[in-house]
């Protein structure tokens, strides 16, 4: 039967203490996008960046989203290097990013030791329009592996692009929450009965998807509020 563990605290503090090997790492880190200057970055919280001014919900803010690009690349590289250590040969890393941080994310992925394998676009049908420009309709998942990718038995064929909008209404419990349906496609990169690690667990969507696909889950989340929400969702799953 699938099981789960959620560690409360900072990923860079907790990852070196773990010794359980995993089959896949799926990570939705704070993007640290937005804000043209350091002053803008310091002044804006996650809610300012990712939530419309007319939004009616009161979802909690989260930390770790004010790094400049060099700081972000260094931090993410350290996180991904620690997850690389815990990943079995052939295991994969899937890391979310947006257009602005795609180059920095690919740098961090490869600096951590992962072999970069490709980019999976994620299209969000419900997304922000841009005046006189193109709708912000896509984010991206970078795929890397530890050595040659695992050969599944039977062979699997996963999609080259994803589609799904953020949860809305009462089902949305995190500012940057990902759709479970999208995450269920991603966790299938792990072998049957395998273990998925998420060092930035947020509200636990990666874990919910892993459990629904019959996989084990290990998560890390530093926000007490988000961790409590994740634990409830994981227990329900």
From TrEMBL:
Record EC number: 2.1.1.-
* Keyword terms of this UniProt record: Methyltransferase, Transferase
Q: Domain DNA methylase N-4/N-6, which positions?
A: 22-228
InterPro entries found in the cross-reference section: DNA_methylase_N4/N6, DNA_methylase_N6_adenine_CS, RM_Methyltransferase, SAM-dependent_MTases_sf
Q: What enzyme class is recorded for this protein? A: transferase
Similarity section: Belongs to the N(4)/N(6)-methyltransferase family.
Record-given protein name: Methyltransferase
Species annotation: Streptomyces halstedii
